[in-house]
Amino acid sequence: MKIILMRDVEHVGDVGDIVDVADGYGRNFLIPRGLAVAATAKNKREMEHEQRLREHRIVRARKDAQALAGQLQAGAYRFARKAGDDGRLFGSVTNMDIADALKAAGFEVDRRAIQLDQPIKSVGEFTVPVRLPAATSALLKVSVTAE
C-alpha cells in the first residue's frame, strides 16, 4: 500500500515522503492515527501544495531572522556595574540582563537563546552569540564598564 506521511514516523520516513508499507500497517495503524493518508492523486497534489507553502514560510522566517540578526549586531549593549580595582565585578552580567537590555532596545529575544557559557564577571568587551529562529545566529557586542 502506498501512503503519504503526514508526520515523521520512525523507521518509515519523514513528512511528505511517499512510502510503500504493508496494507494492515497502513490501514490499521498509520491512517487512523493521522500519521499518513492514502497516496491518491488528489492527496499528492495537496501534499505538494502544502510543501510549497511550508518552504515559503521557511524562506520568509529565515529572511526575517537574518534581518533581526543584522539589527542586533548593529547595536552595542553597555552595562555599568560596580567593580573592584582589579576589574572584577561585584556580581555579574547574565543572559537575563542581556535579554532585558534587548527588550529595552525593542527586541524580543528569549533569555535561553542567549548563549552565554558563564556570566560575565569582569570589565571589558565581549562577544555573545544569540540563537535565532530558522537556524540563524547573531553576535552581540557587550561592553561592561565599572561605575
Structure summary:
With 147 residues, this protein is α+β, with helices and mostly antiparallel strands. The protein is built from three helices and eight strands, in the order ββαβαββαβββ. It has helices at residues 23-30, 41-74, 95-104, and strands at residues 2-5, 18-20, 36-38, 76-81, 88-93, 120-122, 124-132, 136-146.
Strand order of the largest sheet: 2-1-3
DSSP, total strands = 8
Overall outline? elongated
Name of the level-1 CATH class of the largest domain: Alpha Beta
Secondary structure class reads alpha+beta
CATH homologous superfamily of the largest domain, by name? Ribosomal protein L9, C-terminal domain
Helix content: 25-40%
Number of domains: 2
Q: Kindly provide the radius of gyration, computed on alpha-carbon positions and rounded to a whole number of angstroms.
A: 24 Å
Main sheet, how many strands, which sense, barrel?
A: 3 strands, antiparallel
* Contiguous runs where pLDDT drops below 50 for at least 5 residues: none
Q: Count the DSSP helices.
A: 3
- Binned strand content: 25-35%
In words, what does this structure look like?
This protein is of the alpha+beta class. It has 2 domains: 63 residues, 3-Layer(aba) Sandwich (Ribosomal Protein L9, domain 1), CATH 3.40.5.10; 73 residues, Ribosomal protein L9, C-terminal domain (Ribosomal Protein L9, domain 2, Roll), CATH 3.10.430. The protein has 3 helices and 8 strands. The strands form 3 sheets. It has a 3-stranded antiparallel sheet with strand order 2-1-3, with helices on one face. Strands 4-8-7 form a 3-stranded mixed sheet. A two-stranded antiparallel ribbon has the order 5-6. A hairpin with a 3-residue loop joins strand 7 and strand 8. The protein is elongated and about 75 Å long.
